Amino acid sequence: MIELKDIVKTYHMERIEVQALRGLSCRIEKGEMVAIMGPSGCGKSTLMNIMGCLDVPSSGSYSLDGVEVSRLSDSQLADVRNRKIGFVFQNFNLLPRTSAVDNVELPLLYGNKSNSRKLALEALERVGMSHRAAHKPTELSGGEQQRVAIARALVNSPAIILADEPTGNLDSRSSLDIIAILEGLNKQDGITVVVVTHESEIAAHTQRIIFLRDGQIVDGQSTGRDGAEIFS
Question: What pTM, to 2 d.p., does this model score?
Answer without folding.
Answer: 0.90
